[in-house]
Design goal:
This is PilZ domain-containing protein. InterPro entries: PilZ_domain (IPR009875). It is a single chain. This protein is an alpha+beta fold. The protein has a single domain, classed as Thrombin, subunit H (Beta Barrel), CATH 2.40.10. 16% of the residues lie in helices and 37% in strands. The chain contains two helices and six strands, in the order E-E-E-E-E-E-H-H. Strands 1-2-3-6-5-4 form a six-stranded antiparallel β-barrel. The protein is globular and about 45 Å long.
């Protein structure tokens, strides 16, 4: 089943800290939109509430699905400002840049992406 998304997800590589009542976990956001993110490197049970910390900003999230090494989260309040939103806008700008497309670059070229080109969301196998 394919669910249509209201916002375009952008590939990024952003190191974050995921905090729950009992624990803090390090992970990376590998795709991001104003309404949610795919986090790799940590996971929590589905329907868990957590906070995502990045450069002093705290974003609340609910885990929609989870696998041993990654999870999809939804933000109850869309990103509209702050450091995480700025990273999203920067990635969009780089993605739209004709010069980056000519060189074959992705939104961020400083670090390799961990996600597959068609690998947003849950794994097929």
């Amino acid at each position: 089943m394919h669910i249509a998304r209201s916002r375009q997800r952008i590939m990024v590589d952003i190191d974050i800290v995921v905090t729950t009542v009992l624990d803090s976990l390090e992970g990376s956001i590998v795709d991001l939109s104003e309404g949610g993110a795919l986090i790799r490197g940590c996971s929590l049970p589905a329907r868990s509430q957590c906070q995502i910390g990045f450069e002093g900003q705290i974003v609340f999230a609910t885990v929609q699905w989870s696998e041993p090494d990654r999870m999809g989260v939804r933000f109850p309040y869309e990103l509209v400002d702050g450091p995480l939103f700025d990273m999203l806008e920067m990635a969009r700008t780089r993605l739209r840049s004709p010069l980056a497309h000519q060189r074959g670059e992705s939104a961020f070229t400083a670090r390799p992406f961990l996600s597959q080109p068609n690998g947003f969301g849950r794994r097929a196998s």
